[in-house]
Amino acid sequence: MSQSTATVELDALIVGAGFSGLYQLHMLRNLRGLSVRVVEAGDSVGGTWYWNRYPGARCDSESHAYCYTFSKELTEEWDWSERYPGPDEILRYLNHVADRFELRPWLDLNRTVQSARFDQDSNRWQVECKDGNRYSAQFLITAVGCLSTANIPDIEGLDDFSGQWYHTGQWPRDGVDLSGCRVAQVGTGSTGIQAAPVIAEAAAHLTVFQRTANYSVPARNCALTDEVRQQQKRNAESIQQVMHSNTNGHPWKINPQNALDTAEHDRQAIYEQSWETGGLKFRAAFADLLTDNTANDTAATFIRNKIRQVVKDPETAASLSNIDHPYGAKRPPIDTHYFETFNRDNVDLVDLKKTPIVKIDRDGIQTSGGHHAVDVIVFATGFDAMTGSLLRMDIRGREKSLADAWVAGPSNYLGLQVAGFPNLFTITGPGSPSVLSNMPVSIEQHVEWITRCIDDVLAAGKTCIECTEDAMAGWVQHVNDVANATLLPTVKHSWYLGANVPGKPQVFMPYAGGLDQYRKACNDVATNGYEGFTLS
Ligand code: NAP
Q: Among candidates 69, 484, 25, which has minimal Cα distance to 235?
């Protein structure tokens, strides 16, 4: 897309062409003839899945639930090939959506937002892109994802490294040939746990540098048969009804039974069955796993025992199972042969709790326990989650920048709006269920609410909607209260709290009160004449 000097005048500008941006575009294109555009940094649609193409990348929501539900025809015509889709298949799906709903003419690709300023005189957002292109829009909607800004650790000596290094979230589009390479992988979160088995297959040698040991449950990925696909399509309505009414947007209900009210023998049987089923559903084995430490211990012990059964070397097994936080209090990974990978001859684990990284040098990584010569370093070190991608856009409201407004951590109303930033909406922003839920379901809820809101504002003959400081303070308090009723904020190194990024304020960011409660809160606000907002 070349630079044009004229400012493009719009009713709404959307930033990002992933799941959220595409659906928001589709909805607003069909509302009151609004003029809408999407700006997207990548050269195609896809968002998270455009950037995250590291070895082993795969969604850990199930394919029939990790998709839009707004169109029966779309559900009917699209065939997923596996239980969990990989990036290529998700990208094919999103490209199909872009074509099917004729969205492409309104996508401005290869265009990165540099700044967005609210102009009080015109009551419009003035947006400037890095390539000099400019937009002016009444409504500005961010659809930038929660996990899009790479967190690359500031380790002394990285610039001296003579080999190649990559962050998993910025993986080269054409892949990386790791054959014959000695690879270091730093990080054992959801990404690292997916990547290690695949890297180990490709590379001559893999050394995994683990700072905090992590739980993982087998994903049990498999090809979907025609029969399963037909069954999912036949039952689509009832499956979607579950996803739209439960706490997490996944196609299952949480077992209402408490672990602590269940006899040991029966509890173990439920865990064994959940382990065999695999996937994130393990979290739903009992109702009290995320609210009661003793209950959580029963799940944690079960998984630790599984790790020790799988991993043959006792020292490696001890390091992998020496997990310091409750199960599920950090985002729980799911895997395909992660722990089994440590039984391979070409894989080693370095326990950074025992021997921390001292520096990187020309030839590899130096820890306090020795030197590890490598050709490639893979940083699976996560993201400046939830706020990083919003703050790097340099958004400025009536009086201050978003960075200044959020200097002590993100505060907003319903996860959707910030006081002082009129007509700005943040899809799956902090303070919304987002990352604690199956994302496409949360995205659809946000997009539909924002669309209804814009429609109502315009129908009332108003031009501006802005949340009040009081409403925002009340919501922030509520977000904290519901988080504090769970074990989630008890983990020190959690990206949910921003604790993974040095200097980032530590505030529990997602809404832990459940997607069902959240949906109700949003609907009630709209039905009650946008309580907590000012329309002008
Ligand atoms: P993450 O969960 O933040 O994990 C980052 C890993 O890097 C952790 O093991 C962390 O250790 C380690 N690390 C960070 N800085 C380090 C340093 N300076 N030295 C050594 N180790 C360091 O990031 P992620 O694995 O990319 O996952 C982020 C989120 O993305 C997930 O929680 C999930 O929500 C999403 N995700 C989803 C999928 C999917 O759907 N399939 C796949 C991948 C990711 P500490 O734990 O000690 O901080």
A: 69
Q: Which helix (H) or strand (E) holds 313?
A: none
Kindly report, residue by residue over 42-73, the tens digit of the pLDDT.
Answer: 999 999 999 999 999 999 999 999 999 999 99
76 burial class (0-12, 13-18, 19+ CB within 10 angstroms)? exposed
Look at ligand 1, atom 12, and give the residue with the nearest C-alpha: 187
Q: Nearest Cα to 94, choosing from 115, 109, 74, 112?
A: 74
Atom of ligand 1 nearest to the CA of 493: 48
Residue nearest to atom 35 of ligand 1 (CA): 190
* Fold annotation for 7-149+384-535: FAD/NAD(P)-binding domain (3.50.50)
Among 53, 191, 437, say which to mutate for ligand 1: greatest number of ligand atoms within 8 Å of CB: 191
Cα-based distances in Å from 296 to 155, 204, 293: 34, 39, 5
Mean pLDDT of all residues belonging to the chain: 97
The residue whose CA is least distant from atom 37 of ligand 1 is: 190
Name the strand (E) or helix (H) holding 55.
Answer: none
123 and 130 Cβ atoms separated by less than 8 Å: no
| Nearest residue to 145 (alpha-carbon basis) of 196, 94, 102 | 94
How many whole angstroms separate alpha carbon 453 and alpha carbon 89?
A: 33
β partners of residue 159 = none
Distance 433 CA to ligand 1 centre (A): 19
CB within 8 A of 440, min separation 6: which ones?
Answer: 19, 61, 65, 66, 67, 68, 69, 249
Residues with a CB atom less than 6 Å from ligand 1 = 58-60, 147, 153, 186-192, 194, 209, 211-212, 331, 352, 380-383, 435, 493, 495, 500
**Residue from 61, 63, 186, 190 to probe ligand 1 pocket by mutation (most atoms less than 8 Å from CB):** 190
Domain ranges across the chain? 7-149+384-535, 158-228+243-379
Ligand 1, atom 18, residue with closest C-alpha: 153
Residue pLDDT, tens place only, 347-393: 999 999 999 999 999 999 999 999 999 999 999 999 999 999 999 99
Quote the CA–CA distance of 166 and 378 in Å, as a whole number: 5
Asked whether the beta carbons of 419 and 466 are under 8 A apart, the reply is: yes
Contact 52, 121 (CB under 8 A): no
What distance in Å separates the CA atoms of residue 68 and residue 442, rounded to the nearest whole number?
A: 10
Cα 341 from Cα 126, distance rounded (Å): 51
Q: Which residues, listed in sequence order, are joined to residue 203 by a DSSP beta bridge? A: 179
Confidence of residue 5 (pLDDT cuts 50, 70, 90): confident
Q: Which tens digits make up the pLDDT trace of 243-292?
A: 999 999 999 999 999 999 999 999 999 999 999 999 999 999 999 999 99
| Residue 429 confidence (pLDDT) | 96
Cα of 114 from ligand 1 centre, angstroms: 27
Alpha carbon 473 to its chain centroid, in Å, reads 25
Q: Nearest residue CA, atom 15 of ligand 1?
A: 381
